[in-house]
Amino acid sequence: MAFQEMGKAFVGFYYPAFAEDRAKLADVYTDQSCMTFEGAQFQGKQPIVDKLTSLPFKKVNHQITTVDSQPIIGVDDNQACCVMVTGQLKTDDDPPHSFHQTFVLRPANGSFVVANDIFRLALHN
Amino acid sequence: MAFQEMGKAFVGFYYPAFAEDRAKLADVYTDQSCMTFEGAQFQGKQPIVDKLTSLPFKKVNHQITTVDSQPIIGVDDNQACCVMVTGQLKTDDDPPHSFHQTFVLRPANGSFVVANDIFRLALHN
Q1: Predicted ipTM of the assembly
Q2: Sign of the CA dihedral with B6 first, then B9, B11, and B13 last
Q3: Which of A70, A97, A105 to mutate to test the interface with B (most CBs of B within 10 A)?
């Protein structure tokens, strides 16, 4: 299904770029983008990239478990896409942590931008 | 923040209704709604409700850990809302399982409907 491929393609770009150089992610956010990172809210390209680049680890690796993608029918000519990712991430020498992240992607200039980004570590206690 | 309240209000309706009588949830889905449940895809009110009501447990309880909500700027006059929920659920006499669920809510008739619903148990192996 096309939306599954789109979600996987986005994830295949996003997490390697995150690991290599978080500043590169500026390309996928706009001044309309909203990010919630562990409950803290950010809006706009610069505040989001400032947050991502200030995270206090040097090395980070995301291992993706699932990527589920859906069209948002009736938005952007059915081209908007909701993606939920689950996986595990490892920062520096810490043990792996489970995480989940939701993106809303919207078409822009022949590509896609992140309208919404919600990230949580999987902690229940 | 208004969107946080909206997400919490939705969650406060959805999971108790899920526990009490899943057939009631027909009210929040439309024929445009997409649901992905553990990787299986459904579209439309009836297929979604059929899936939910056929889940093979009798008792279910969701304990919510986090609810993060954001406006989708530029959609539905900024009234569309992306919600990511994490929590634990307990079915019948099984041990609790962590889950995460994403909803896209859109305004309709003075209330909201679920445009997108993605559910996953937190399993990484």
Answers
A1: 0.94
A2: negative
A3: A70
8 A C-beta contact, residue A68 and residue A3:
no
Q: Residues in chain B with pLDDT < 50?
A: none
Collapsed DSSP state (helix, strand, coil) of residue A121 = strand
Residue A122 has pLDDT above 90, yes or no: no
Query: Do A104 and A116 touch, CB atoms closer than 8 A?
Result: yes
Yes or no: say if A28 and A114 are a contact pair by the CB < 8 Å rule. yes
Which range, of A1-10, A99-108, A116-125, averages the lowest pLDDT? A116-125
Between CA A36 and CA A101 the distance in angstroms is: 10
Please name the helix (run of DSSP H) or strand (run of DSSP E) that holds residue B45, with its range, or none. Answer: helix B45-54
Other Cβ atoms less than 10 A from the Cβ of A113: the count is: 17
What distance in Å separates the CA atoms of residue B52 and residue A11, rounded to the nearest whole number? 28
Inter-residue contact A97 to A61 (CB < 8 Å): no
Question: Using a CB-CB distance cutoff of 8 angstroms, which residues of chain B are in contact with residue A88?
Answer: 124
Q: Could you say which architecture CATH assigns to the domain A2-121?
A: Roll (3.10)
Percentage of residues of chain A with pLDDT beyond 70: 98
CB-CB neighbors (< 8 A) of B115 in chain A? 72-75
The H helix count followed by the E strand count for chain B is: 2, 6
Q: What is the DSSP letter of B46?
A: H
